[in-house]
């Protein structure tokens, strides 16, 4: 399943940024995982800073006719005019904070794109989750590039092929890790962050996106 390329170095980046990565060997997908883009100490600082400075919102969703609180807190940050609609919710973007501008510069350099928006999700405990979906909204373009940074408690990230039911994968998104999904990934694969009964610390995930 995995191509172990964790000993590869990219001399164009500081060692701490991209010295470790693995490409997931999944058909119809292009997914690269950087297990420690940021070290524990820096990740903790980022988590504290973002938890405090982001204007978190609790959205409500309609499931089988019932209105329920979305099982996580969210925020949408982006360039002016980059509104985001999903599951019937439209979010107007908040402006970039200093921390997010810095983070964007780092992940832009790794992904080789200019992200113009970021969806932030705060999973307060193991009851918070995100269900199966693909990030395939038309505004994300033909082959969406999604850069996903995780901070805080480790959660499982599950992947399943939309058409070949036997194809699945799971990886632990640890604090400071960065997962890059691009190419045809969103056409063929769905992903989720399931609930867990294990005790987990709060987790903040940022998915950087390019909105057309
Ligand atoms: O929290 C995660 O790791 C996944 C978030 C996600 O899939 C999304 O924001 O679209
Ligand atoms: Fe997603």
UniProtKB/TrEMBL annotation:
Pfam families: 2OG-FeII_Oxy_2. GO terms for biological process: DNA alkylation repair. Gene3D superfamilies: Alpha-ketoglutarate-dependent dioxygenase AlkB-like. Its cofactor is Fe(2+). Coiled coil: none annotated. It comes from the Bacteria. 2-oxoglutarate binds at residues 121, 123, 133, 191, 203, 207, 209. Substrate binds at residues 84-86, 136. PROSITE patterns: FE2OG_OXY (PS51471). Residues 114-212 form the Fe2OG dioxygenase domain. GO terms for molecular function: broad specificity oxidative DNA demethylase activity; cytosine C-5 DNA demethylase activity; ferrous iron binding. InterPro entries: AlkB-like (IPR027450), AlkB-like_sf (IPR037151), ALKBH2 (IPR032852), Oxoglu/Fe-dep_dioxygenase_dom (IPR005123). Keywords: Dioxygenase, DNA damage, DNA repair, Iron, Magnesium, Metal-binding, Oxidoreductase. This is Alpha-ketoglutarate-dependent dioxygenase AlkB.
